[in-house]
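thread: overnight batch results

M.L. [08:02]
morning all. the overnight job finished for the chain we discussed friday. pasting input first so we're all looking at the same thing
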Amino acid sequence: TRVSVPAMLEVGGNGDLDCSWEEDTDHMYSIKWYQGAHEFYRYTPTFRNPIQVFPLPTLDVDLEKSWGGSVRITNVSLAAEGPFHCEVSADGPTFHTASDSASLTVVDLPDEEPAIKGVRSYYPPGSWVDITCISLRSKPPPILAFTINKQPVSPGWLEPQFDQTDDEGLTTSTLRLRFSLRQRLLEDGELRVECVSEIPGIYLYTTQYVLSTSPPYQASVTGTGAARAGTRPWHSSLVLFLLLLLSLVASKSLL
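M.L. [08:03]
and the structure it wrote out:
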């Protein structure tokens, strides 16, 4: 009468499968669960050991939390994605069989938070900003977006998102942003740029950088900066010496 599986699980996660039935004039003989074409669980209530598990490389079964038509699956892999099929068989004399299926989606979240590459230490007003947001290895790929000072950027400043899938089925995504650093974009000489990475319903992460139009401060090496505490510049010492000399000459003339 009903087959229920989680709509979505993360890689390595767990979830519950449930298969319901009505006996009517027949009596249930066995319930079987399949992942794709492969049987991995069977419940036969008339057997001494009513539960049988057939190992699969794509998932494990938690026997302590499985009984009848309800099965707890654990350690799911990407390969566990797809249809799960429940089959209920009646005892004799009819041996009637009924079945139904439902699909499971397995997601693998990005390896780490999105990174913004290409940021310089400072930007003179009017210069070009050319940065790229990168999200590493996920399934499905996230939707990437940029904001400037919390506002969506002009579509004309963006290149289309580029997704590259590796041999393991995981996708690395990049989004490039290019624009001129105009005065109207600045707030107190700064601009806040964010990259937002989202897999709707399960993942959302934001990385922020502050772009500055002020060059980083560097102490002068050859200049005539302020004297260190406890010392006097040489010209100050010369002035004191001349004043002392004049005082001595004046005192002699009075004598």
